[in-house]
Amino acid sequence: MEQTAEKKQVIFSGIQPSGTLTIGNYIGALRNFVTLQHDYDCIYCIVDEHAITVRQNPADLRRRCLELAAIYIASGLDPKQNLIYCQSHVSAHAELAWILGCFTYMGELNRMTQFKAKSAAHEDNINAGLFTYPVLMAADILLYQTNLVPVGVDQKQHLELCRDIAQRFNAVYGNVFTIPEGYIPKVGAKIMSLQEPGKKMSKSDPEDTYIALLDSPDVIRKKIRRAVTDSDGEIRFDPENKPGVSNLLSMISALTGTPVNQVVSDLQGVGYGELKNRTTEAVVTALEPLQREYQRLIADKAYLQSVIDENGQKASALATRTLRKVQKKIGFAPRG
Ligand code: TYM
Hints:
By secondary structure, this protein is mainly α. The chain is about 55% helix and about 5% strand. It folds into two domains: about 10-180 and about 300-330, Rossmann fold; about 205-295, Tyrosyl-Transfer RNA Synthetase (Orthogonal Bundle), CATH 1.10.240.10.
């Protein structure tokens, strides 16, 4: 991160290296990381500790961490301007999470909808980490005195809990943590499944329900052609009654930077076939440069490793500052 005369505000966000990234991750989060990078000091974490709340194959997890670093950079994030690193390389995350866990109520964690959904999906492995996941997420954010957190709408509840924990801690110990705000995009904060448009698009669902960031143009075309719409044939933005059509309209709007109303009026008089063609075009055009850059970067593992090593050290220095302050406030014995 470059030193500037005037201190910029801090952004923190993270993505799990737990599978193929989808166009939902891109529209809801990643592309906003890129837009915001010039105006803030940005920290973009590869949250591998969050990923192990669900069983991971070790070799796959290791590979995906470097792949996610490549995706971050390929999407346009400059690793000299932004801290791109692995959560597990900065032990302060886990240490602060323990402390914050002592300021979080079971009742609060019990209310988390993501915990309920994930425990239903992994009935054989409802582990304590899955339950305390939002506490680790709060530690991620609060360690860096974060002002703004760009995320999709599914993370809103976790972010609110983070703010509650920080306020509770500050009320006892003084102004230790900055209270973060969410940055949730107006369009595309929740991209829906192509097959069940009432449900969020998710990388843990079957292949034909999501567009992966690295899908070829052909695969993207096929998946969008098979996307579920409805039978009234009218192109109108109405997520409640026309979730499939509205989902495609949101993707076009977000990816082309055109207001939804404008997209809708541009498409008056055409059928769903043309709506799908336009969606495909918007997705392929947005992903083409990212995919090209990704292929170049992923061939250079040594470079990617050096990025996460150097940035991990810088992140560690920043995080340790907050952690030491917290430890002192709590009353842990000073270090000699
Ligand atoms: P994760 O890895 O599930 O998703 C990464 C980001 O992508 C957004 N997202 C979506 N946005 C729109 N439509 C969708 N269908 C869609 N699917 C995913 C998510 O909202 C997220 O912004 N707990 C977080 C990772 C995390 C984090 C943090 C985020 C850990 N620590 C601290 C912010 C700050 C998660 O599981 O994201």
